[in-house]
Amino acid sequence: MIGSRRTILGGLGAGLTLAGIGAQGARSAAQRKIGYAIVGLGSYATRQIMPNFKNCDHARLVALVSGTPAKLRQYGAEYGIPATHHYSYADYDRMRDNSDIDVVYVVLPNAMHAEYSIRAAQAGKHVMCEKPMAVSAAECEAMIAASRKAGKLLMIGYRSRFEPYNRLAIDLARRGHVGPTRIITSEHGFPIQPNQWRLDRPLSGGGSMMDIGIYSLNATRYLTGEEPVEVSAIESTDRADPRFKTVEDRISFLLRFPSGVEATCVSSYSSAHNAYRVVGTEGWIDMEPATSYSGQTMRIRKDGDVTPRTISEPAKNQFAGQLDHMAECIMNGSKPIVPGEEGLADLRVIEAIYRSAAEHRTISLAT
Known about the structure:
Layout lengths: L4 H6 L12 H8 L3 E6 L3 H7 L9 E7 L3 H11 L6 E2 L15 E4 L6 H10 L3 E4 L7 H14 L3 E3 L7 H11 L6 E9 L11 H4 L8 H12 L5 E7 L13 E7 L5 E7 L4 E8 L2 E5 L10 E5 L2 E5 L8 H15 L7 H20 L3 E2 L3
Parallel strand pairs: 1-2, 1-4, 2-3, 4-5, 5-6, 7-10
Antiparallel strand pairs: 7-11, 8-9, 8-15, 9-10, 11-12, 12-13, 13-14
């Protein structure tokens, strides 16, 4: 059975000046590490995000938000967060009075991203929000508007943009290391366990496409540096499976880009894969796993030879890199490389994917 709302709630500087963040504010923030409040103490927040603050140069954990008092006590003690910096959802807006908090990082079920991101901006805080940014393009637009009105940054948690192998793949693909890109395949999926909020459409906004499928989609966009102009999609879901009463299992979709690149993608809740391949006129760049928490592996085929490409382990991983990037943007008055507009772009394509699958036709994304 899906848990209650309370249980679920418990459960490189870009160099672009952001209007509303003046030099005085940037200098003030630069005098200390940027303080984060984590909203939602589920497994992703507590196992991946929070442990990585220790590896950050410019970011620190200063506050916690949860509907479960026991979690606030547990993680407050573990990270040295005083009770004055513990918040419930009922007193969430009280954060406006806490000058230690610079950024509110929203790590909640998808359907709650917009509300808590907008309220954080209204409280005068910068916002980091997990992906997908929201459950509709309209909500994304409202989030962007709220942060813009408050003169605050809005960044989406696309951690792979800070992972060294993915950054290398972007560089190699865009500069034609294996010739101009012609085809991309991108496949992400895992067999999902039952009885979780991701399988409850009112909370998730959809099935695999709103969860693991966004990695397939976003990879095609960052590897090409382009926005798709056309999408075709088909859905395959066994409605007899109790996991998929309200959400989809598998969606396969084809994206066409302005340069002529075609991307064939898979999003799945019933099969395990995490990979993409960029095929150019002279070879290919292969990543498997591609967007996992760790262990990325790259191979390149060029001039008839297939060779592994290795990178020395960086001083900070993708999680710490992401946290520090937001902090650096605040200190420098610059815009994140993954701002709210990036999340909006994904949601617009996701909506078109769902529409294509439902209407059994190709959807144009050209504006």
